[in-house]
Amino acid sequence: MADKKKMFNMREALKNKNKYKGYFKSNGISTIKVTKDNVPQMVDVEIFAVDNSHPLMKEFIEKNPQPKAPVKRIFGDPKTGESVQEMGMDPKEAARNHNFTWMNVRDFTNENYEKEMQEWQEKAVFIQLIIVLGVADEYGVDDIKKFEEDMKDLGITPNQMQKLGDDIKNLDS
């Protein structure tokens, strides 16, 4: 969709912040297909752009810090972060080479970390959905499960969720 370009005077906006407050906050409509008795219907859902400065997102991050991968100690190349084993080198030979050293690196392949990170990301997505669907007054950080259940009760499918997500991304990209 080709929208008309509009010249925006940023200098003017910064001088008159109250007049232009929220100017760049995007909102729009996501059109979702719903089929009832083999009859497709198109439903418009009001959406808002994701704003990580939203108080609900800040509260979520404060109460649920993003998991950190555990640290492991490896002997390897500090320029690449690769261990001598990953490079297929003999550790004794590498020990004689002054280009290698002991390093602490984050283990992003750790199974517990991967599980914790996946759970955190799923919760973060639901918080973002609460924000972009404009229901932050009804659902808080402690209501993620209730929101998820309520969305399931509405019968929303993964494809419809994906469409919502894509439309939200396209609001300001």
Description:
The protein has 173 residues and is an alpha+beta fold. It has helices spanning 10-15, 17-20, 55-63, 91-95, 111-132, 144-154, 158-170, and strands spanning 27-36, 39-48, 71-76, 101-106. Strands 1-2 form a two-stranded antiparallel sheet. A two-stranded antiparallel ribbon has the order 3-4. The radius of gyration is 24 Å and the shape is extended. The mean pLDDT is 88.
Keywords, separated by commas or semicolons:
7 helices; alpha+beta; single chain; 173 residues; 18% strand; two-stranded antiparallel ribbon; extended
Fold blueprint:
Blueprint: H1 10-15, H2 17-20, E1 27-36, E2 39-48, H3 55-63, E3 71-76, H4 91-95, E4 101-106, H5 111-132, H6 144-154, H7 158-170
Antiparallel strand pairs: 1-2, 3-4
Helix pairs in contact: 3-5
